[in-house]
Design a protein that fits this description.
Elements lengths: L5 E5 L3 H13 L3 E5 L2 H11 L3 E5 L7 H10 L8 E5 L4 H9 L4 E4 L4 H17 L5 H4 E4 L2 E4 L4 E4 L2 E3 L3 H11 L6 E2 H9 L7 H15 L6 E4 L3 E4 L3
Parallel strand pairs: 1-2, 1-3, 3-4, 4-5
Antiparallel strand pairs: 6-7, 7-8, 8-9, 10-12, 11-12
Helix pairs in contact: 1-5, 2-3, 7-8, 7-9, 8-9
């Protein structure tokens, strides 16, 4: 059975939000709902949706600001965003597209057209070879590991890791709470029979901790065994 696509609907008007959610759920999609920009950002960073339908006129942080924030965030920048609004002026459409929106639908809208636009955005995403967001990133303890770009961010700050440090952090973050010996870590990141001493793992871990700053404390030493990254 194919995994359901995850969508986030951001709309402050209850009736419209529920109408959109109902039609998406009838199309066999998993739907998350937010009624303001703050909720939208929190859910997007937690759930890694496959697509976001975002109203422009929201209380507090408006849809333009939400879009701008998500497109700058390493964990959500590749998620397609369809802007939904009653404002049909060309300047609004251009503004939405310039800050990263992938499509723009004006109210009132046909649910069939909306669903068609959602499917079209997903097809474009699949044609680019982009993997689901949850497979592109790890996020743990405010540490984001961007796999395609080989980039790490800790509390929003870029962390410059070597290739080996990146591989070790990725391995530990993929298995939070599990303790691995130095030999297991070497085998995982370099393959069996690689000529590296266990002591070199200690040096790499020390470097990772230092570069992660305050977040380095979550990489724990288990005396007599090895290392683990603390489960959240």
């Amino acid at each position: 059975m194919n995994k359901k696509q995850k969508l986030l609907v951001v709309e402050d008007e209850d009736d419209i939000r529920e109408l959109i959610a109902f039609n998406l759920e009838m199309s066999n999609m998993e739907v998350f709902k937010a009624k303001n920009g703050e909720e939208a950002i929190e859910i997007a960073e937690r759930e890694y949706p496959d697509i976001i339908i975002l109203d422009v006129m929201l209380p507090g942080i408006d849809g333009f600001e939400v879009c701008r924030y998500l497109k700058k965030n390493v964990a959500t920048r590749d998620v397609p965003i369809i802007m939904l609004t009653a404002r049909a002026e060309d300047t609004d459409v251009v503004k939405g597209l310039e800050i990263g929106a992938d499509d723009y639908i004006t109210k009132p809208f046909s649910p069939r057209i909306l669903i068609a636009r959602v499917h079209a955005a997903m097809r474009r995403k699949n044609e680019t070879g982009t993997e689901p967001a949850a497979q592109r990133h790890f996020k743990i303890h405010d540490i984001i590991i961007d796999l395609p770009r080989h980039e790490v961010f800790a509390r929003g700050e870029f962390v410059n890791l070597s290739a080996t440090e990146f591989a070790i952090l990725k391995f530990l973050a993929s298995n939070p709470g599990w303790v691995f010996s130095r030999s297991q870590i070497i085998d995982a990141v370099k393959g069996g029979n690689y000529p590296v001493t266990p002591r070199s793992v200690d040096v790499q871990i020390l470097g990772i901790r230092k570069k992660l700053g305050s977040q380095g404390r979550f990489i724990e030493t288990v005396r007599g065994v090895g290392y683990r990254i603390q489960a959240e």
